[in-house]
């Protein structure tokens, strides 16, 4: 074992710490993720209110995680793009548009899934 390297377990703990730090930064600084956290809370409360099934919980939780994760990736792409090319550039703009489009597609899918779960319960 290389003495300058830390043990695997210590590296994993540090990695989780870095990931948690990134998640807290994302949620505390980005307006769009704050909105999505609010929506996630509302939809979770709705899940308890309407007593959704285990399968519906799994799908709903997966969709919340998908949208929020892609929003995080979108934010990271925007930060990288701004770092590489701070002034406006049409190719950087295209990259940002595509990244935002991925969030949009995930969000639309989540809305459709929520409709499939909740519309029959409401009506």
UniProtKB/TrEMBL annotation:
Its EC number is 2.7.1.-. One of its GO terms (molecular function) is kinase activity. The chain crosses the membrane at residues 35-52, 98-119. It is found in: Cell membrane. Keywords: ATP-binding, Cell membrane, Kinase, Lipid biosynthesis, Lipid metabolism, Membrane, Nucleotide-binding, Phospholipid biosynthesis, Phospholipid metabolism, Transferase, Transmembrane, Transmembrane helix. InterPro entries: DAGK (IPR000829), DAGK_sf (IPR036945), UDPK (IPR033717). Pfam families: DAGK_prokar. It is a multi-pass membrane protein. It is an enzyme of class 2 (transferase). The keyword rRNA-binding does not apply. Belongs to the bacterial diacylglycerol kinase family. This is Diacylglycerol kinase family protein. The lineage of its organism: Bacteria, Pseudomonadati, Bacteroidota, Flavobacteriia, Flavobacteriales.
